[in-house]
């Protein structure tokens, strides 16, 4: 994942076809796709939100960065917030807590929403912030099964 983060950083610093520097936004979103990697390991997709001024026409990354834009359609997510650094162990624990919470709610069967991601981790704090960090674990949920509309 460090290699992907380095490529995203290069893109933000101007490694794009029009050499635009792009302000870093939050959250940094890491989506986990179980079993999609080599030897059935998990694969990860790291996403950054673009500032408003670039959303209509994002700068095209240099080809050697092998980055691809991703537009998410409107959809619903279930969220659980947690503090500290997002590390493998506590992220899995928080995802399990969110799954348990959903299993006891009206949303119990809504996580069968067709999603390529098992879950996503949203990190809002700079890596240099040591206390008061804000993170979330996200599950895609099926809005229609509960009568919620998306925009």
Throw out a few tags for this protein.
Reg_factor_effector_dom_sf, SOUL_heme-bd, 5 strands, alpha+beta, 151 residues, 2 domains, five-stranded antiparallel beta sheet, Multidrug-efflux Transporter 1 Regulator Bmrr, Chain A, SOUL heme-binding family protein
Characterize the structure shown.
- There is one protein chain.
- This protein is of the alpha+beta class and 151 residues long.
- The chain has two domains: 1-71, Multidrug-efflux Transporter 1 Regulator Bmrr, Chain A, CATH 3.20.80.10; 72-112 and 132-151, no CATH class.
- 21% of the residues lie in helices and 21% in strands.
- A five-stranded antiparallel β-sheet has the order 2-1-4-5-3.
- The mean pLDDT is 84.
Can you give me a brief rundown of this structure?
The chain has 151 residues and is α+β, with helices and mostly antiparallel strands.
What is the end-to-end distance? 31 Å
Q: What form results from the Cα inertia axes?
A: globular
Q: Remind me, CATH topology of the largest domain?
A: Multidrug-efflux Transporter 1 Regulator Bmrr, Chain A
Structural class: alpha+beta
Strand content: 15-25%
Family: Belongs to the HEBP family.
InterPro entries: Reg_factor_effector_dom_sf, SOUL_heme-bd
Protein name: SOUL heme-binding family protein
Organism: Panicum virgatum (Blackwell switchgrass)
